[in-house]
Design goal:
By secondary structure, the chain is α+β, with helices and mostly antiparallel strands. The protein contains 11 helices and 9 strands. 37% of the residues are buried.
Length: 353
Amino acid sequence: MPHAPPLRALLSQYAAGSAVTCEPVDQGLLNRGYRLRTTRGHYFLKHHFDPETADPAAIARQHRATERLAVLGVPVAPPLPDRDGRTVAVVGGHSYALHPWIEGRHRHGGQLTPEQCGRLGALLGVVHASLERVMPVQGRVPGVRSEACAGPQDRTPAPDADPRAGSADPADTCALIDDLLTRVRRHRPADSFDELARHRLLERRALLERHADRRPPRGGCVGWVHGDFHPFNLLYKGDAPAAIVDWDRLGVQPRAEEAVRAAAIFFVRPAGALDLPKVRAYARAYRRTAGARPSELTAAVHRVWWERLNDFWMLRWHYERGDTRADPQFPAASALVVWWTREYEAVCEAFAD
């Protein structure tokens, strides 16, 4: 098995029995997971491999958050403590965590009824509201300002401050597009992915030139968020969500933006359009349980649209890293921003209605 974890050393720290089988779980793009069967049951073993999310202190913070959310009834899978009560096991300089195995399956938005879309939005709203209860944000968050949440003393930026700081600069994006176009031209042998990449890069540059004056201000009302809420991080048992998993990106961000980003993943169709009736059902339920105003969602739609307009992480993985795992997502994701630009008002209405 590639990247086999040190099972004997790990399990010696837990009252979980001896390993019988250990099978890789292929869903994650950043960290590594294994379905582990021992003499005492089934478990999910997570190897926190990605350097950006592998700090033991940050992992322990994630674990505390899920433990507190579980007490509130949020469907999560908190880690199991070892014999000393710790939830992060460090072996050979690598961090691991052992979780109960949750039976379930992933469901994309196309597999959800309108009622289930509403349940999904309500769930994310409950997550945000519950995180606010168990992990209140203390003080000001560097680099993020909220007109909706700030007090009067915070509403006026410093005289030399750029209110758009924190959002992508189209000049920088155009420079990145030029670099990526050069990489596409040099790739040999040329293939259909190169052809689509070139088309989308040229198309995106034209869109940026046309909409450069729409660069948004800083983000909105901030709080702790899951950070990576998408179909592969939500398990269903039957028609009901069974567990929200993979809290590696837990952090303080504009909450409504997570709601919009999640919808743009759950409800994108293969041709790159959003299923707006399902978005509407999802957004109504999210606003109700999160206590978010329609204006917050509208502002978040604009910021996430701009983010998508300037984002090329899939192409950077492909051409800079030689990592092709995200390639299957590229056709729909790259088409979405073009459709979103054309249907901008309809998207805003669906999130705010």
